[in-house]
Amino acid sequence: MEQHAPGGQYGPGRERWFDEAAGPIVRPYAVTRGRTRPRGEPLDIVTILVATGTPPAEPGRLTREQRRLLALCRRPHAVADLASELDLPFGVIRVLAGDLLDSGLVAVQRWTSPAAAPHTDQNLLRRVLDELRAL
Description:
There is one protein chain. The protein is an alpha+beta fold. The strands form two sheets. Strands 4-3-5 form a three-stranded antiparallel beta sheet. Strands 1-2 form a two-stranded antiparallel ribbon. The chain is 37% helix and 10% strand. The protein is elongated and about 65 Å long. The protein has two domains: 1-31, no CATH class; 32-113, Arc Repressor Mutant, subunit A (Orthogonal Bundle). This is DUF742 domain-containing protein.
């Protein structure tokens, strides 16, 4: 049984894993397995992610942070908001979210600008407005 010194918890090599004032200490590179960039497309702070609803092929392979991120993405979230909610650095969220993107568990939600909408939508809005005025 591993012994814990007063004032903190220690890992197998006697390195300190816990700081009473700050809480658990986990370096960002440990969370991302040493990676600093996502493998796929780059994600910026305003990229919106949403869960696809696809079940993970190997649920046990997801890290705790990835499971938490996936749970938050049940509703669309910006990457910056995910970093804030999970209290993790933006770079860590980019790597974890990139892994979830690669595995098809989350998708980037793309927004189209009103200028990109087809003209038929404008015609439909005019007809609705005309009908409302007729009431």
